[in-house]
Amino acid sequence: MPPKPAVRGEYIETETGNKISRKASVLGPRHIILAGKCVIQNDVVIRGDLVRPAQPKPPPQQGEQKSATPDQTSIHLGRYVFISPGCTLHPPSRLTTVANPNGGEPQQIMTYFMLRISDYVYIGPNTHVRAAEIKSNVYIGANCTVGNMVIIKDNVKILDGTVLPANTVWAGGTIIAGRPGRVVGEIGEGWAANGTSGSTMDEGVGVRSRERWAAVGNKR
Amino acid sequence: MALPFPYIFISCPCSDVSNRELTSKRSSRDVELDQEIQDDEETFDPRHPRSAFSLFPPEHLLYCEECHEIKCPRCVTEEINATYCPDCLFESPKVMVRGEGNRCPRNCFHCPICTSQMITASVGDPKNGPFILNCNYCMWSTLDVGIKFDKPTGIRGQLDEIANGGEQKAATVHSPYSYQADYARKSSLSRPPLSPADRDEIADPKEDSVSATPLDPTARFNALKTFYKEQITESSATDATFSTSALDMAYSSPSSLQRIMNLYTNKEGATIRARQKLTVMREARSASEGFALAASRDSGVESQSPRIDYDETVTASQRAFQYPSFIGNPAALKVSELRPMPTLMRTKRSKRCATCKHILARPELKISSARYRIKLIALNYVPFVTIKPLPIAGGLPPPGPDGGDVILTPGKPVQFIMTLRNPLFDDVSVSLGTPSVTPGRHGHRVTILCPQFRLGKNSDAWDDALSNNNQPDRGTGNIAGGEQVAGKLYDQGRNWASVVLEIIPASIVRQQSEELDEDEDVIEIPIRVRLEWTVTDDEAGMERRKRDTRLDEGDDIDDGKRELNYWMVVGIGRVAC
C-alpha cells in the first residue's frame, strides 16, 4: 500500500483513525497504546513517560505482580476515547514494598501503574485524570479532578467540576457531581447499548462518540 | 437549563390521562380520529408547570412490547434483584441487609465531615497496623476521634465495639431491626418466662458492671424493650385472651386480630377477668433495664450546653448524615462525637410494565457486570433525533457534538436540520406536527418544511452492502438534495432522513424593571411525532399466528400494525435580549 500523502494539518491521523493534535504534548509515546479512533486535542498532556521501571527479576510473592506484561505500558486508551483540550492524563502511583536488591529490609518505593481507559469515554476540557481504571461509556465533564488510583465502572456520567478523591471506587450506572463527588442520580437504561457489537443500533453514547470523532480532524 | 443545546425531551403519554385512555382502545377507529382532532386542538406546552413531570431524556424511557407504548420511570414498577455495596462491589444477601441497616457490613465507610469515601490506612507497620480510616478529600481520620483498629478487615464489626475516644462501648449495640436481637423471645414456649426471682439474680451482677457507664440511646432502647416485653409476658401469662404473639406488635397476625376482636365481643368477660387478676407491671429501675436518671435542673444547664467553639460544632447536614442512631450519632454536638458511617447499599433492579407486568429491563445478576439480560429501551423503537444548524453562509456556526449555548437573534429566520434515524428493522412512516407559533408568552414561529416522510428500515451494515445497488432508487423524487424546498426532505439515507426546521425567534420585550423568568429566553419547540409501521420480522409473525388462534375467543387481532404518538420537545437555543 503506498504511503498516504502527507497532510500537514492540525492533527496527526493514524491508520486506525486516531487523531492526535500536534499541539498536544505526548510524553513517552512508546508506552501509550491507542486502540483506534481516539481523539487527543490540543494542549493535552499525556504522561506516558511515567512508566513502571522494567524489572529484570520481578520480586516474588508480591500481589501486584500479576500484571507482568503491561510493565511497559503506562496508558491504554480504548476505541472512541475523546480527550478535550487542556486535559492531563497521568498514570496512577502507589507505594509498593519491594525486596531490597542489596539484601536486608524490604523497601517502599513509589511505583507507577497503568492508566486504563476503555471504549467510548469522553473527558471534558481541563480535567485532570489520574485514575487506575475507567471503564466503558463514561462521560467526564469539564474541570474535574479524578484522583490517584480511582476506579470508575461502566456507564457513569460525571458532571462538570467534580472532584473524585484518591483511591475511591465508583459503581456503574450513576451520575456523580460535587466536591467531593457523590452520587446524585441514576443513568437511564438507554445510556449505552448492549455489549453486542455489529449492530447499528443508535444509542446516546455511541452516536455522540462517533460524531465527536468525526467532527475533529484536518480539513480536506 | 443545565443541558447544552440542542436537547431533546420526550413526553411520556402516561401523564395525560385522557390521552392514555383513548390510545388503549386501539381497535376502534373513530376514537383515534377523535383523538387526532383533539390533538390538533391542544398543543403540548413545554412551559406548563405540569409538563415538566412528564418530560424525560430519551435514554430514560423504555418501551413495552405488549402495550406498544413508551414507558417512563413513572409507569414501571421496580423489583430488587440484588443488593450490593457500591464501594467494594460485594453482594449482600437480602436477609442480612436489613439487620445491617442497609449498610456495608465490611470495610467501606464514608467520612462524617465531607461524606467522601474513606480508605483504610496503616499507622505503623504496613502489615500489622494499627489501622485507621482516612478520608482522602478532607484528610479527616478516625484518629481525630481516637479510634484505631487492630485488623484491616472487618472494620464494621470492630467499630461497633469502640466508642469515640477508643474505649470499649458500654454495651454491644444491636440494630433494633436485627433478627438476632432477641429471636428466642418470639415465642414464650421456647423459653419459660423468667420469674422475678430469676431475673433479679441475673440482673444484679450486670448492674454492677454496667451502671458505671450509662448506656447509649440505642442500647437503652433495646434494654427497655426487652424489659417491658418481659413485664407484659409476666402480667398476662395467665390471660388467655392476650396471646404472646401480640408482644411482637405483629398486628397483621391472626391471633392478635382475634385478641382485638375479643375485646369488643365479650366485654363483660374481659372486665371480670381484669378484676380477678390484677397484676401490676413494675417500671424499669436499674441501668441494665434501661433506667436512666434525668439530669437535675441546676446541674443540667452546665452539662447540657457546654461551651463549644464554633469550629467544633457540627452542621445540620453532618448530623443528618449520622442517622440511624444505632450506627452513627445523630445527637452529636461536637465534631469529635461524629462517627464514620458505613456505606449505604445500592440495588440492581429489574423493571416491569405497571399495566401488563411484562419485564422491560432486567440486569445481569453479577454485580460486576453492567449488562442487561432484557432491555427494551425506547430508543430501539423511536427515531433518534439529532439537530444541527443548516450549513449556509451567514448561518450559525456548527456546534460541537455535545452542543453548547446557542444564541439566536430575534426576528431573523434560522434553519436547522433535524435528522431522524430509524432503529427499527421495518420501514416507518413519520409525520411531524408542530404549532406554527410556540405556546407560551413568546410565540416563536416554527415551520417544518417536510412534515411527512418515510424512514427506511434499519439493517445490519452487511445487509446494506449486499443490497447496495437497489437502495438509491427509494424515494428519490422526494429528496431536495441539500436544498430547502417545502414538502421535500433535505437529505435521506438508508435508515435516516433529514428535514429542515425553520424558526423565527420572537423578540422578548420587557420593561426596565421587569425581571426575566428563569430560562424564559429558551426556545423550546413541541413536536408531535406520529410513527406508523408494520411488524414483519419472524418473531412478530409467530406472535400474530398465536393471536390468530385466539381469535375465536374474541381477542384483538394483531395485524402487526404499530402506531406510536408522542410529544417531543426540542430545545434549540436562547433568544438574544
Automatic annotation (TrEMBL), chain A:
Record InterPro entries: DCTN5, Trimer_LpxA-like_sf
Short name of one Pfam family: DCTN5
SUPFAM superfamilies to which the protein is assigned, alphabetical: Trimeric LpxA-like enzymes
Region (Disordered): 51-70
GO annotations of cellular component type: dynactin complex
UniProt cross-references to PANTHER family, sorted A to Z: DYNACTIN SUBUNIT 5
UniProt entry tagged with the keyword tRNA processing: no
Signal sequence range: none
Family: Belongs to the dynactin subunits 5/6 family. Dynactin subunit 5 subfamily.
Organismal lineage: Eukaryota, Fungi, Dikarya, Ascomycota, Pezizomycotina
Keyword tags: Cytoplasm, Cytoskeleton
Subcellular location: Cytoplasm, Cytoskeleton
Keyword Zinc found: no
The protein's name in its UniProt record: Dynactin subunit 5
From TrEMBL, chain B:
A GO cellular component annotation in the UniProt record: stress fiber
InterPro entries xrefs: DCTN4
Sections of the chain in a coiled coil: none
Comp. bias (Basic and acidic residues): 197-209
Lineage: superkingdom: Eukaryota
Region feature Disordered, mapped onto this chain: 25-48, 185-215
Key words of the record: Acetylation, Coiled coil, Cytoplasm, Cytoskeleton, Isopeptide bond, Phosphoprotein, Ubl conjugation
Compartments, record wording: Cytoplasm, Cytoskeleton, Microtubule organizing center, Centrosome; Cytoplasm, Cytoskeleton, Stress fiber; Cytoplasm, Myofibril
Predominant cellular place of this UniProt entry's protein: cytoplasm
Biased composition (Acidic residues): 33-43
Family: Belongs to the dynactin subunit 4 family.
Assembly information from the UniProt record: Subunit of dynactin, a multiprotein complex part of a tripartite complex with dynein and a adapter, such as BICDL1, BICD2 or HOOK3. The dynactin complex is built around ACTR1A/ACTB filament and consists of an actin-related filament composed of a shoulder domain, a pointed end and a barbed end. Its length is defined by its flexible shoulder domain. The soulder is composed of 2 DCTN1 subunits, 4 DCTN2 and 2 DCTN3. The 4 DCNT2 (via N-terminus) bind the ACTR1A filament and act as molecular rulers to determine the length. The pointed end is important for binding dynein-dynactin cargo adapters.
Protein name according to UniProt: Dynactin subunit 4
